[in-house]
Write a structure and sequence with these properties.
201 residues, mainly alpha, Four Helix Bundle (Hemerythrin (Met), subunit A)
Length: 201
């Protein structure tokens, strides 16, 4: 009974926080609701017995990604009034995607009510005596290795794209030229000066 109450509590708070991420007008509040959603998702992982995934979610997403989002949102000077002007142009596409997701949820919940046995979670194929971290590593790096590598490449491309989009060339700024520094010769780096006695500093 206690596990069921904890599950419904975490799930309810997670759902409300996820809705507030996209419904909040202030982007800083959206990031804070995102952090709340991550914490509740970690709680659900703990209830499922996946402590490693829960700790990874808290450390990586809450400790790094969400805080980075918060700093980026606070530092950028974004004109949100201009962004909201074209909202109605994308309303039909957004409504279509939302309708598809709603139909999928209705079909899924309807299938659970009609045949609850077929939608029950399957038994885990993990061997006895294997830790959660080892079992997760065996699945990711054997059965889903190509999907894992593809996800890494997608994140790498997204990171490079973010750098390219935010890179701004500024004039009058001294920049480091690594190739010129590495290619310096001894004659360019060292200068022999003959100082006469009594003429030093």
């Amino acid at each position: 009974m206690l596990m069921a109450l904890a599950f419904y509590l975490f799930a309810a708070v997670l759902t409300v926080a996820a809705v507030m991420v996209i419904a909040a007008r202030n982007p800083v509040h959206s990031v804070l609701f995102l952090i709340l959603a991550f914490f509740n998702a970690a709680g659900l992982f703990v209830l499922l017995g996946a402590e490693f995934l829960a700790m990874t979610l808290v450390i990586v997403y809450v400790g790094a990604v969400a805080v980075l989002f918060l700093f980026v949102v606070m530092m950028l000077d974004i004109d949100f009034t201009e962004l909201r002007e074209g909202f109605l142009n994308y309303a039909p596409i957004g409504g279509l995607i939302g309708g598809v997701l709603l139909i999928e949820l209705v079909l899924f919940l309807g299938g659970m009510m009609v045949a609850p046995a077929s939608s029950a979670p399957r038994a885990s194929p993990v061997r006895e005596g294997v830790s959660n971290t080892q079992a997760l590593g065996e699945v990711i790096y054997t059965q889903y290795i190509f999907v894992f590598q593809a996800a890494g490449m997608i994140l790498l491309i997204a990171m490079i794209g973010a750098i390219v989009l935010t890179l701004r060339e500024r004039t009058g700024v001294r920049r480091q030229n690594v190739a010129a520094q590495v290619g310096r010769t001894r004659a360019q780096a060292v200068e022999n000066v003959d100082i006469k006695p009594g003429a030093g500093i």
